[in-house]
Write a structure and sequence with these properties.
The structure holds two protein chains of two kinds.
Chain A (H helix, E strand, L loop, with lengths): L2 H7 L11 E7 L4 H13 L3 E6 L4 H11 L3 H6 L3 E5 H10 L33 H10 L13 E6 L2 H5 L4 H18 L3 E8 L6 H13 L2 E6 L11 E7 L11 E9 L4 E4 L9
Helix pairs in contact in A: 2-3, 6-8, 8-9
Chain B lengths: L12 H8 L20 H7 L4 E3 L6 E3 L4 H6 L4 E2 L3 E5 L6 H16 L2 E6 L4 H6 L2 E4 L1 H19 L8 H4 L17 E7 L2 H6 L2 E5 H4 L13 H16 L15 E5 L19 H16 L3 E7 L7 H10 L2 E7 L16 E7 L16 E5 L4 E5 L15 H4 L23
Parallel strand pairs in B: 4-10, 4-11, 5-8, 5-9, 9-10
Antiparallel strand pairs in B: 1-2, 2-3, 6-7, 11-12, 12-13, 13-14
The chains are: A alpha/beta, B alpha/beta.
Chain lengths: 279, 423
């Protein structure tokens, strides 16, 4: 959790909002620091977190989390954190052909070779339903009456990888839609998802996914590389966009732009051009 | 980071491994150092794997890529458990050289090799590896080279481009044989006895592919499935993922895959615009999953200049940890450009991973060029930024004209002197 980012977003772990979809987006830079921020933020806010980590291993997040003040092993042991480690599970799913369902079983999916008339490989008709079932099961409210955790949170790092693994953009959008209905609306929780923006390379599926999610989300945090290139003191620019997707009010979307520098245990934010190295 | 799992040496270790329960504690990314769980016996075991060293930044276990200059640019070396993707140059000359350096480094350090290729038989590839430069030969040869250079150029002090005189090289000359990172002589072959003493596994795709055209499960190209199964087999059988507790000495598995994505692997990614784009990305994902759960490091060379669909390249970059692109000047108009006349090509560090950390070691230098001499593959900065110091006057040049400490006897061309330089 970066205190400066909390100030910019005007939240604290005690007053976390509910029922929101936050979209994290990075273009020409690495936006994973935002994922670490939200992970530690929600763990500190005493929420039950389901983390679908498809890109890095558990110990990576754990070590960074310790720098930010949360311990993922402790959270996992006491049930606050449900962690799906994509890389490790993919090996199990891929090599051991078992019939039992697994959240990532689309990795074993069978797709037929195209007939000679069809030139393009079509996305197979698989969907992410097993993954949705996993999330729903993980964020099920505890039945013993006493609410141990504040609100359920789903964190996905990241969704663009699902496209690389054979899912179509529509399947991923469906998955988020189902999760939103369950987590955000039914259980008043939050969803945070990271999508890479491919920029000028024409990745159509990724653009469909990104546009579709941008339209549905309440808060968009977009980490961009500097337009002028690499700089040692300013690592990038963060654009924060508040939206109200469901209400057709005249209230305009509100956005702020800051530049940031990532340090060992925190990230410092400053207004554009106001980097301490320049002043 | 190598495994903290208590498999291997030690009398009580098997007992404690059983007690530990889950077998999943063999990731490469656990922090070394004093831990609350008190598994301090692993400290000495980690350091004792030949050819590895911990990173100064986050304690990550690193292996050398075979090229000390590249190691320095990547923050000390290649982290165990990660993928290094080399985007090939147009005629696959320098990328195959980097591939050979990687394998040769594995042989020198005693690592196990896994060589996969669809073009050449791995046994042939291993015969062509460059010979290492070891201690006793090194100083003599380098003095020879240095003398040749010095007699010709000792009188040439930089007159106009005086700032280049002070430029530190990317690496020091090989005056001492270090355990981490060696230098190779491209004109000589690796001695036969070293190759035979090493342990290696080869995967030559034309031999392993069967001719039946069945339905491809998992939408992966046939070649990739076979390769993944082969790699997983080796990792499992030889205990690189900690599954075999009888193994005494831990070792690193170096996986080298050549020309991945080319049509020789059965992938039509480079041939058509709408090829099977998921096959390669899925392969990379599962491969990374295998690497993260074992003590191995992988170098892949990929002809990205042949891939028609540019979106795939960005996806592949996101799925790899370290990405380095090579661009050679052969055949392009840059070959005759006087700006590039000393160099053989450009090298682009496209991505460096942030492992166990928010920040990473990134060098400030973005435009790098490489030059291949017989015994040295140097990587140097191509352009200098403008001199923005406050007093660009002649009196300040006395301070600047001191020799840089990194210049060793092997650096030849730019030997610094203490003399003040005049225009």
């Amino acid at each position: 959790m970066f205190p400066e980012l909390n100030n910019l977003l005007n939240t604290t772990p005690d007053r976390a909002e509910q029922g929101k979809l936050t979209l994290l987006c990075d273009a020409n830079t690495d936006g994973s620091f935002l994922v670490h921020h939200f992970l530690s933020f929600y763990l500190k806010a005493n929420c039950k977190v389901c983390f679908v980590a498809l890109i890095q291993s558990f110990s990576h997040y754990n070590i960074v989390g310790q720098k930010l003040g949360v311990s993922l092993t402790v959270a996992r042991e006491c049930g606050q954190l449900v962690f799906l480690e994509g890389l490790k599970s993919s090996v199990d799913v891929f090599f051991r052909a078992q019939a039992e369902p697994h959240p990532l079983q689309f990795l074993r999916s069978v797709s037929l070779q195209p007939s000679p008339e069809v030139h393009a490989w079509e996305a197979n008709a698989e969907n992410l339903q097993p993954l949705y079932e996993f999330v729903r099961e993980a964020l099920k409210p505890v039945d013993d009456g006493e609410a141990a955790w504040r609100c359920p949170v789903l964190l996905v790092d990241d969704l663009s990888v699902l496209l690389s693994l054979g899912m179509g953009a529509v399947a991923v959008l469906d998955f988020i839609h189902y999760c939103r209905a369950t987590v955000c609306w039914e259980r008043k929780g939050n969803i945070v998802a990271l999508v890479h923006d491919s920029g000028d390379t024409e990745d159509e599926e990724n653009n469909i996914l990104l546009n579709g999610l941008s339209h549905q989300s309440h808060l968009i945090l977009r980490a961009e590389g500097l337009a002028t290139g690499f700089c040692r003191d300013v690592h990038g620019q963060l654009r924060i966009l508040w939206r109200t997707p469901s209400q057709p009010t005249t209230q305009r979307d509100w956005s702020l732009t800051y530049q940031y520098k990532i340090q060992d245990k925190s990230v410092s934010f400053f207004a554009k051009g106001m980097s301490p190295a320049v002043l | 980071m190598a495994a903290v799992a208590t498999c291997g040496t030690g009398a009580g270790s098997t007992g404690s491994m059983v007690a530990a329960g889950s077998k999943n504690n063999v990731t490469s990314f656990q922090r070394r150092g004093p831990r609350a769980s008190g598994s301090d016996s692993s400290y000495s075991r980690l350091v004792s794997i030949a050819g590895t060293r911990p990173s100064v930044r986050n304690g990550q276990l690193l292996v050398s890529t075979g090229l000390p200059a590249l190691d320095q640019l990547l923050g000390g070396g290649l982290a165990v458990g990660t993928v290094l993707l080399i985007e090939e140059d147009k005629y696959n000359i320098y990328s195959s050289l980097l591939f050979k350096y990687f394998l040769a480094e594995g042989i020198i350090n005693g690592h196990t090799l896994l060589v996969a290729s669809a073009k050449e038989d791995p046994a042939d590839i291993l015969q062509e590896l460059p010979a290492p430069l070891l201690d006793d030969n090194v100083k003599k040869d380098f003095d020879e080279d240095a003398c040749n250079h010095k007699t010709a150029e000792s009188n040439i002090k930089m007159k106009i481009a005086w700032r280049y005189q002070l430029l530190p090289k990317m690496e020091a000359g090989p005056v001492s044989s270090s355990r981490f990172g060696h230098y190779y002589d491209v004109s000589k072959k690796m001695p036969q006895e070293l190759i035979e003493a090493s342990k290696w596994h080869g995967f030559f795709f034309p031999e392993k592919s069967s001719s039946t055209l069945n339905i491809e499960p998992c939408s992966l190209t046939h070649g990739y499935i076979k390769l993944l199964q082969f790699i997983q087999n080796i990792i499992y059988e030889e205990g690189f993922d900690g599954s075999n507790p009888q193994k005494k000495q831990k070792n690193i598995l170096r996986i080298g895959i050549q020309n991945l994505g080319s049509p020789l692997w059965g992938d039509d990614l480079c041939c058509t615009e709408n090829g099977n784009s998921r096959s390669l990305t899925k392969f990379l994902y599962v491969l990374r999953g295998l690497l993260r759960t074992s003590l191995s490091a992988c170098m892949i060379t990929m002809p990205t200049h042949l891939i028609q669909n540019k979106a795939i390249i960005s996806r592949v970059t996101n799925l790899s940890d370290t990405v380095v692109g090579l661009e050679s000047f052969i055949g392009s108009e840059r070959e005759t450009n006087p700006l590039y006349k000393d160099y053989h090509g450009l090298i682009h560090i496209r991505q460096i991973p942030r492992l166990n950390n928010l920040i990473y070691d990134v060098s400030d230098v973005k435009d790098l060029a490489f030059k291949l001499k017989r015994k040295l593959f140097t990587i140097e900065r191509l352009h200098l930024p403008p001199d923005l110091s406050d007093t660009v006057s002649r009196s300040s040049k006395q301070d600047l004209a001191e020799p840089s400490k990194l210049l060793g006897p092997g650096c030849g061309v730019m030997a610094g002197g203490k003399k003040h330089l005049d225009f």
